[in-house]
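ok so dumb question maybe but i'm new to this and my supervisor (M.) told me to 'just get the structure for Apyrase' and walked off. so i did the thing. is this what she meant?? sequence i used:
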Amino acid sequence: MGKKWRWGVILDAGSSGTRLHIYRWKNPAKALKDASPEELHSLPKLMTEKKWTKKIRPGVSTFGENPSEVGREHLQSLVDHALDIIPEDQIHDTPIFLMATAGMRLLPQVQQKALTREICSYLQQNTQFSLPDCDLHIQVIKGETEGLYGWIASNYLLGGFDHPDMHNHGKDHHTYGFLDMGGASAQIAFAPNATEAEKHWDDLKLLRMRTMDGKPSEYKVFTATWLGFGVNQARESYVKTLEDAYQSPDVVELPDPCMPTGLRTTLDGQPADKSDKTAPTLVGTGNFNECLRKTKPLLGKDVPCENEPCLLNGQHVPALDFDVNHFIGVSEYWHTTHGVFGTKDDKAYDFNTYQERVQEFCSRDWDGIATEYSSKKEKKAREAQEACFKASWLINVLHEGIGIPRLGLDKPPAGFNVSQGALEHAKEKGFLDPFQPVDKIEGIEVSWTLGKMVLYAAGQIPPQGNKDLPVGFGSNLPGKPTPPDFNFAGSNWEPLKHEPDDDDDWTDTADDLLEKATKRSTSGFFVFVLILVLLAYVFRKKERRLRLYSKINSVFRRGRRPGSPRKGGRGLAGLTHKLFGRSSANYERVMEEGDLEQFELGGVDSDDNDHSDSTEGSRVGRSSGLATPKVNIELYDDSRTGSAIDRSGLVVRTESRERLQLQMLNAGRRSRAGSPTRLKSPLMTPLEED
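this is what came out, is it supposed to look like this??
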């Protein structure tokens, strides 16, 4: 059956930093064995944990002029973190991706190519991760691709793919639109209604995934990106307009209605030096309505539209039908609506309430705001300084640019065709509104990286029927299931090479139980382990008992506090001594060390990472199992040699490796039913882990 789990690593190289994401899902061969009918019609179930992410600053793009340093100075710490999570024997089967977004897109092409080549070379030479194709695994992805991955991740977490009947928005539409805004760019992705999809078929992307039963699942999605429309780039453009409007040899103080009254900064947002009377200085006037008026021209609504209809900056976008196109917004859409002006208890976006909060804050005197934020982190104070501009930009993009209706939670669009239960659930979450900013869905933070890995995992499922329908995306060309520009998922549905073993199912069950047991109390876990040991003795072959004992012992050894006293050979040591016997010198040595009785459940460490800023993605996973705990279970190592001492202190003669293997093979000639033992590969030793 092969390994139980498959793993994937993806590095989101954003404009301000790089974030590591690790995902895990069941090997399709294992998952299909006991899948329910509902699971067979669903996409693979991906899992992640908070401690499986890590972010470092600054971004990869800062190494544009020194690409040779990006591996050692930037990537290695992320690689090391991944190696601490993923089992050592699965590293070579684990794909690693690095996908750079808007920060890298702003670099010259020559620097982009130099960086991606250096990154791929470093990872291939210094890690054992699966990286067969540099062009596929190490990329500067387009904004449209980033938006498509975000669209996949959002609908995956919301259940729009697996349960379309519970998300029927009317007109046979059951998916959600996706909006992302970061420091450098903004993206949109959505499935148009049937009329618009037929009218603009050549503007859409064909997306193909594969459900667990091997059947293709296809969608037609529109994606677009606006480089330079992220909040940081928009702020730079806005300041430039102030310079053009006010600056002259006689004027060095530029009035800025998008800053609280009295706030003084340099043009790049740093605190102004009051003693310098010559450097241009921005002075806040706290007039939010004027701020809205001055930021609106930055939308580029007056740019000619060559292909109607258009949204921002003359960019063609099929007409939005807000009866069925319900959007969620991530990254800055969330942080700008909830960071300074909102609370995490706000379940939906209400335009009127939001604008009232913004106007009240931005009209305050900066000295009062600064006093309020003086006890907080410097980052929080900077957010308060920038909050008014960001709010004006978000409001203009949403309502003047994209055209989101200015509706509150109690005024959802008409025309929904859903059950009353589903309607109430969706209204509580806010997902029936035309727009809803989100950070997490069912406790899981949203990231486009999840969409990429969902696509990869779906590509590992063996196809049923037409095997010429690969997983991935490309142009929507009628009659061409695999268009010339098709982006393959990069995965292979051929199973991992692995010798079959009749004990795989038992080992998987034991591993699952051990994972769950580590979350219980010490006393409960002690009783649970005794039950496992008894079952191992009654049902399993001798070498399997040794391997199971090794796994249990490794959990105990990790739990013992450093420096705690070792107890004698009574209690559990005596019981395991009787159950497992003294078949090998290796086992004798473990017993002699006296570690088995010294155990506690260790705490689970979790990194408190900063949130990512758009192009930087977010932590994410699958709501139906993402919080599944993981215990690193050390495998029994049959390579250790040396003398062993029995309980009476007598020296036991060290056997050769070959003789020990022969003894254990002979000891394992009995199966539960008394049937002949299956032949094993001559390349596998009796104690080798699957």
